[in-house]
Design brief:
By secondary structure, the chain is α/β, with parallel strands linked by helices. It has 4 helices and 5 strands. The longest helix is centred in the N-terminal third of the chain and has 13 residues. The structure holds the ligand O=c1ccn([C@H]2C[C@H](O)[C@@H](COP(=O)(O)O)O2)c(=O)[nH]1 and zinc ion. Its EC number is 3.5.4.12.
Length: 159
């Protein structure tokens, strides 16, 4: 008889997004994303990090101060990295699992690539203009978004 406590697709892909976030060097918000085809095949993953050639030991991780000395001008967002990491040609109709609701810039890229559904975990910046703009664009473009519903299963990885 088959195992009964296997995880569902949402838990599987959000789990991969969460594991990807563990690669992030951001000390305050690590983000992971996983892009999945219509038939539940993983197309790409990403996390927030400095662009290639921009050392994450040398570029700043600060949130405040002179804007040029904060991370915001430099860090490449998880969702954008997942899109850029994809080596295939077509992600039309795909879903993206992300640990943080995508900002307006990631949302533009998500829309332009033909992704049709966003499954997010945290929406901690819901009150910001960036996220309000994201939702406005997503609603206009007919892209659905829903918050991930935890299945209540703790998985410990001994790595
Ligand atoms: O769509 C998004 C929005 C943000 N991020 C990343 C960018 C930063 O590294 C953090 C946010 O840092 P805070 O200290 O919470 O402002 O999240 C992302 O990957 N995707
Ligand atoms: Zn973003």
């Amino acid at each position: 008889m088959k195992r009964k406590d296997y995880i569902n697709w949402d838990a599987y892909f959000m789990g991969i997004a969460l594991l990807s976030a563990e690669r992030s060097k951001d000390p305050s918000t690590s983000v992971g994303a996983c892009i999945v085809s219509m038939d539940n095949k993983i197309l790409s993953v990403g996390y927030n990090g400095m662009p290639i050639g921009c050392s994450d030991d040398e570029f700043p991780w600060n949130r405040e101060g002179n804007p040029l000395d904060t991370k915001y001008f430099y860090v490449c967002h998880a969702e954008l990295n997942a899109i850029l990491n994809y080596s295939g040609t077509d992600m039309k109709g795909a879903k993206i699992y992300t640990t943080l609701f995508p900002c307006n810039e990631c949302t533009k890229a998500i829309i332009q690539k033909g992704i049709k559904e966003i499954i997010y975990m945290s929406d901690k910046y819901a009150e910001t203009d960036s996220i309000k703009a994201s939702k406005r664009m997503l609603d206009a473009a007919g892209i659905s978004y829903r918050q991930y519903v935890p299945v209540g299963k703790d998985i410990t990885l001994s790595l």
